[in-house]
Amino acid sequence: MSEELVDVALGAAEANGIAYADVRLISPQRYLHLAVRDGSASALTSSVAAGVGVRVRTEKAWGFAGTTLLTPAGVRTTARTAVRLAKAAGRRAPEPLRLTDDPGPLNGRYETPLREDPFEIGREEIVGMLLEAERRLHVGREVKSGLASFQAWDERKWFRSSDGYGYRSRIVHVGAGISATAVRGATVQRRSAPSSFGGDYRQAGFEFVRGLGLDAHAEEIGREAVALLDAPACPSGPTTLVLGSSQLALQVHESVGHAVELDRIFGSEAAYAGTSWVPADRIGTLPYGSALMNVAADATEPGGLGTFGWDDEGVPAQRTPIVEAGTLVGVLSSRETGARLGLSHSGGTARADGPDRAPLIRMTNVDLAPGDLSFEEVLEGIDEGVYLDTNRSWSIDDKRLNFQFGTETGRRIVRGELGEQIRNPIYSGMTPEFWSSMDAVGDRSTWHLWGLPNCGKGQPGQSARVSHGAPVARFRRVAVRGG
Predict the structure, then answer these.
(1) What three-state secondary structure class fits 241?
(2) Could you tell me if 280 and 319 are in contact, meaning their C-beta atoms sit under 8 angstroms apart?
(3) Burial of 31 by CB count in 10 Å (0-12 exposed, 13-18 middle, 19+ buried)?
(4) Which domains does the chain show, CATH number per domain?
(5) CB atoms inside a 10 Å sphere around CB 247
(6) Residue 43: predicted pLDDT
(7) Which residues of the chain have a pLDDT value below 70?
(8) Which of 139, 126, 13 is nearest to 78 (CA)?
(9) DSSP label at 233?
(10) Which residues contact 5 (CB under 8 A, 6 or more apart)?
(11) Quick one: pLDDT at residue 94?
């Protein structure tokens, strides 16, 4: 029945004199969220959704409509609505649309490799795992609150276009994490693991969650939260900064990933999420950072939340260099923005968060490549500095240029060794100056692929799950202070 509905929607769109149409049927789209706080269940959410999104193009404009009414009459009406919107928009469009010429799959198949389907694991088993991990966070009376959480997503999609391309996919994402909040008087400190934002996430089955070993790490996290209550404040002033992998992954997300989305560069996102400091005419020549900076967007990376077979325009997943030896060489693009820039093909990054939303340029897996130094070698030669990791707060302007980040944890670096803990550290800077100050990059042993489940963009708003790989790295003369 699903493929028949796709055919009906596509036929209704093509019958109305349009240049192009594509149809996405999502059925089902499942979500599961389980959480335990302070010994009791705090989240028991399970949802199932389905729908069809129809996108059409005249010679001058796009039209889009979506529906949850999965009947022939429902999808036929939706396709005709999309056609009417495109024709109405085309009457005011100044010039014809141009698109890159990207071959798609004739009958593609993509599926997340799973050893354990998370939606077939008993809820009792998952909650039991969370209860045990949360219980172990309470290492003393100062730990006033503990949280252990689990999330899973499952999306099955049928895609077909009037060009004759089509594919089917099933993508499963999972993740889990813990956090402890310690309180003494007016002082509050939190520690999270494996990272903040609910933990770590991967395109995988429940075996990934088992491998996180939340219960094995919980007592250590609880002790670190308590220890931070007595830690001295972070020192203030310009200093040598070493960022851990988790925090550096968020730095890549905010100051690189969003800044190189081509719709932002062209100003299409100005009303909501901002634009970019990157000039369109400097792509290929713009200095972005030091010669040690190498970044790529890779939608083929195993386990990434931004990994797929084809995007929501039917463009194959690919690896796109973004920064090479400190110079901006590429961007995240769609068929329309790629053609506007003069690219020969799309970067394959157009994705929507459901059938009721049109595709936008979204990050795939935007990674900072590792260097050749061990963690100890990154610390060498630092007389005084700080090591910061695990995000606590973030702020960046609408051009992705001026930023300020706070982290949950920090350590002094004294004569090349990690020293005492410091609390409430904050660092700030400007994107090109910050990345230009990077003078040491950790090797593969310090690199980790982190999943981020809540990247927001667009009007109406859409949420995407993306991944970022990052090593540890060292930056010179960065402004640091205590919060």
Answers:
(1) strand
(2) no
(3) middle
(4) 2-228 (3.30.2290.10), 237-482 (no CATH)
(5) 30
(6) 86
(7) 1
(8) 13
(9) B
(10) 25, 52, 70, 71, 72, 75
(11) 86
